[in-house]
Design a protein that fits this description.
Elements: H1 2-9, H2 12-22, H3 58-70, H4 74-80, E1 88-89, E2 96-98, H5 101-106, H6 111-127, H7 153-160, H8 168-188, H9 203-216, E3 235-240, H10 250-258, E4 265-271, H11 283-289, H12 292-295, H13 309-316, E5 335-336, H14 338-341, E6 345-351, E7 354-360, H15 363-366, E8 378-382, H16 406-416, E9 419-424, H17 427-435, E10 447-455, E11 464-465, E12 473-474, E13 479-485
Parallel strand pairs: 3-4, 3-8, 4-7, 8-9
Antiparallel strand pairs: 1-2, 5-6, 6-7, 9-13, 10-13, 11-12
Helix pairs in contact: 8-10
Pfam family, one: MSS51_C
């Protein structure tokens, strides 16, 4: 019904594009249900496998308890039409999945999810095992004359010289951290695998990307020199509604900078939920952060990217996922910037080619401070913004139609004529966000497509499991698309 209504509202341009390729990616058939026991993951390591209740990791035992409190038995729900919490742990995946062993045995559907759940079980036990996680050591500058391929993670690990990515599991761990910087590099870099030949980049999009690449790279044919160029301005990357990505360690963000050896990058995390280092936390939060509980923040931001139980209720009503905000540890050069921006904020110079800043504020309130904008030197990213989710303030409308949410932000971005790239955590999430643009005054008919919606070569390879329903699994930054305000008239230099 909803789809029908949306189809009627859609603009002619989008309708025709839809018919062509737009949402072809989401029509993949579900794998057929295999009766009986599920197969094990291909890289199964039985010594990493534990039932949640018998896990050596207190954190994972606790997660099992949370799932038991939050998730309902799918057989009770669909067959008996009653809600009964899960209790029985599947011996193949180790997650609490059904109320009893009988219902677990009855449920042929579980085989569809079991393999992935076991993979997550083993991945998490690997991370919690206390072993030295060598795959988190990152390579330094790209040697002169070497080219890094951006086709997909595997070729990237290889050509970029990552030292220890020799298993699928290592790739999943690392992709979860690097999906944010590499999603940006994967679009902006001159060797991007998203291009006009594969029809992901539109002709309009190519103009925008060529403009940005004049700031990011030396002119075609010239050798890529290391070090900032004095005659080129920095590229400003604005991350709108930044959450978990603002708590990533700075050396993870530095991997983005290293992909552009002769550019200078300024990354701005902006949103009400950004992570801040202690130096710029408001006084009452500083006191909280001093407590031992808060100080025990998760290493490498790994748990801060998980779905917490308090988010489960919200997820049920299709609201945005809010990862926990970890207090960020920063270098001695980190400056509190409240006097400069008027909101809790910091700036941290990481090196002479990378600066990271974060401002805890709704974007619309501080947009004017960053003007004027230039499509050659400014670009916007929104990671899993949930444009199409129901508004948290106004019932009955989406967040992109709501003036107190994305509705006030996106018209400002379109006005700058700068590129905006948006990710989603599943085909459905991408489609929901793209369709939500239709019919919104100030947004619909005001933009050009620059990147058509589709899969992101640098999506996280690791599955995130919803604790309120372990059948629900998504991958961060699964898909990506991009738009830009219409009438980009600046002639090329
Ligand atoms: Zn049951
Ligand atoms: Zn199972």
């Amino acid at each position: 019904m909803l789809a029908l209504r949306l189809a009627r509202q859609s603009t002619p341009a989008l309708r025709s594009t839809c018919r062509r390729t737009f949402f072809g990616f989401s029509r993949k058939k579900e794998p057929s249900v295999v009766a009986g026991r599920a197969r094990k993951p291909e890289d199964d390591e039985p010594e990493l496998f534990h039932l949640h209740s018998q896990s050596p990791s207190p954190a994972l035992r606790l997660r099992g308890e949370r799932v038991k409190k939050l998730a309902a038995c799918p057989v009770c729900t669909s067959v008996d039409k009653v809600r009964k919490n899960v209790k029985h742990e599947c011996p193949d995946c180790g997650w609490p999945t059904h109320c009893t062993e009988e219902h677990w045995e009855q449920d042929n559907e579980h085989a569809k999810y079991c393999t992935r759940l076991r993979e997550v079980n083993e991945d998490d036990h690997d991370l919690q095992s206390g072993r030295r996680i060598d795959e988190f050591s990152m390579p330094g500058p790209i040697p002169y004359g070497e080219t890094v391929s951006l086709a997909n993670w595997d070729i990237f690990w290889y050509t970029r010289g990552f030292p220890s990515i020799d298993t699928e599991r290592a790739g999943r761990h690392l992709s979860k951290l690097l999906t944010y910087p590499m999603t940006i590099a994967g679009v902006l870099h001159e060797y991007s695998s998203l291009n006009t030949r594969n029809q992901r980049v539109t002709p309009e999009g190519l103009r925008s990307l060529v403009a940005l690449r004049t700031t990011l790279h030396v002119p075609m044919g010239a050798p890529e020199t290391h070090g900032p160029s004095p005659d080129r301005p920095p590229l400003r990357i604005f991350i709108l509604g930044s959450r978990a990505e603002s708590s990533l360690p700075t050396h993870v963000w530095n991997q983005l900078s290293l992909m552009f050896p002769s550019a200078t990058l300024s990354i701005y995390h902006i949103g009400p939920e950004v992570s801040l280092p202690k130096v710029s936390l408001p006084a009452e939060e500083q006191a909280q952060a001093a407590s031992p509980q808060a100080a025990a923040s998760p290493p490498e931001g790994k748990d801060s990217l998980a779905i917490s139980p308090s988010d489960a209720e919200e997820l049920k009503s299709l609201k945005i996922w809010k990862p926990k905000i970890a207090e960020l540890k920063m270098s001695k050069f980190t400056r509190n910037e409240i006097a400069n921006y008027g909101v809790p904020s910091y700036t941290s110079p990481i090196n002479d080619q990378l600066q990271i800043a974060a401002l805890r504020s709704p974007y619309a309130d501080i947009h004017a401070q960053f003007g004027p904008f230039d499509p050659y030197t400014d670009v916007f990213f929104a990671f899993q913004p949930g444009f199409g989710f129901p508004s948290q303030h106004t019932p009955g409308i989406t967040q992109i139609a709501s003036q107190s949410e994305w509705g006030s932000v996106i018209p400002l971005i379109l006005e700058t004529k700068c590129s905006l790239f948006v990710t989603g955590f599943s085909p459905e999430d991408v489609e929901r966000d793209v369709r939500s643009l239709e019919g919104v005054p100030g947004i619909a008919n005001e933009f050009d497509w620059i990147l058509t919606p589709g899969e992101n070569p640098f999506k996280s390879l690791r599955w995130e499991v919803a604790e309120f329903d372990p059948r629900l699994m998504v991958r961060n930054n699964w898909g990506i698309w991009g738009i830009r305000g219409q009438s980009f008239i600046r002639p090329f230099a």
